Amino acid sequence: MKFTVEHTPATIVKVYPKSSDLFKKYRIDFCCGGNRPLKESFTEKDLDESEVLGELNASYEEWSKEDHDVIDWDAKSLSELIDHIRYTYHAPLMEELPALGQFVTKVYSRHGGTHPELKELYRIYNDFKVEMEEHTIKEENEVFPLIKEYEVNPGEELLERIRVANGGLADEHNGVGDMLKEMRKITGDFIPPVDACGSYRITYARLAELEEDTFQHIHLENNILFAKL
Q1: What is the mean pLDDT of the chain?
Q2: Nearest by Cα to 33 from 182, 223, 163, 209
Q3: HEC states along 155-195?
Q4: 178-226: per-residue pLDDT in tens?
Q5: pLDDT at position 81, please?
Q6: What is residue 35's predicted lDDT score, i.e. its pLDDT?
Q7: In the 3-class helix/strand/coil scheme, how is the chain assigned residue by residue?
Q8: Is 12 exposed, middle or buried (0-12, 13-18, 19+ CB in 10 A)?
Q9: Do 169 and 135 meet the contact criterion of CB atoms below 8 Å apart?
């Protein structure tokens, strides 16, 4: 198939998971705002439509010739999706947030005098940490149990309870997505300065990995799990 300006980033990532790398390169949102046609992102970011589509389709053509085990998430049950999100993203995230927070604090404490951007990184990271922890706890304790119950006993009343419990989660996803984008901007694409020590470099590498995991995490929730409901 050929991707066009009418395809959405969310749809493309489901078909071609590696496209998330290209979307990250061009700052095209595939998770929080992933259901908008590509043409809107091209116009908004003043991107060359033919250049980006050409790169996307050429890489997809090469990738499709190889043997890839692509998971059809649309074919998975609600419970399977929830279990995957919990064990692949939620559990590691709740361990990584405080651990990485210690690195962010350490780097700010030691290098904030010569790199003032670290103060803003420290502030935004801690806002992000609190938001993600509260968000994850709400999903684990309120939203996910209701969705699993709905899968066994579907009904409009239960679906409405899920909508109420789920209220605000999409906005929270947008908020944390914006925080990640701001952290990327502050750090210059998570590239440490030439005088960075080992801890400094580890911090930026882990922030980049956190961004990647969070975008994939939100994509699965927004564009697949919640879309099923």
Answers
A1: 90
A2: 223
A3: CHHHHHHHHHHCCCHHHHHHHHHHHHHHHHHHCCCCCCCCC
A4: 899 999 999 999 999 998 999 999 999 999 999 999 988 988 998 889 8
A5: 95
A6: 84
A7: CCCCCCCCHHHHHHHCCCHHHHHHHCCCCCCCCCCCCHHHHHHHHCCCHHHHHHHHHHHHHHHHCCCCCCCCHHHCCHHHHHHHHHHHHHHHHHHHHHHHHHHHHHHHHHHCCCCCHHHHHHHHHHHHHHHHHHHHHHHHHHHHHHHHHHHHCCCHHHHHHHHHHCCCHHHHHHHHHHHHHHHHHHCCCCCCCCCCCHHHHHHHHHHHHHHHHHHHHHHHHHHHHHHHC
A8: buried
A9: yes
Q: How far is CA 63 from its chain centroid?
A: 22
- The Cα 4–Cα 174 span in angstroms is 25
Q: What is the pLDDT of residues 108-138, one digit of tens each?
A: 999 999 999 999 999 999 999 999 999 999 9
The two structure tokens encoding residue 93: 């995230």
* The pair of three-digit structure tokens given for residue 52, joined into one six-digit string: 């980006």
Q: Which residue is listed with tokens 């579907």?
A: 154
User: Alpha-carbon distance 10 to 220, whole Å?
Assistant: 9
Query: What is the dihedral sign for C-alpha 134, 135, 139, 142?
Result: positive
Give the integer Cα–Cα distance in Å for 95 and 157: 35
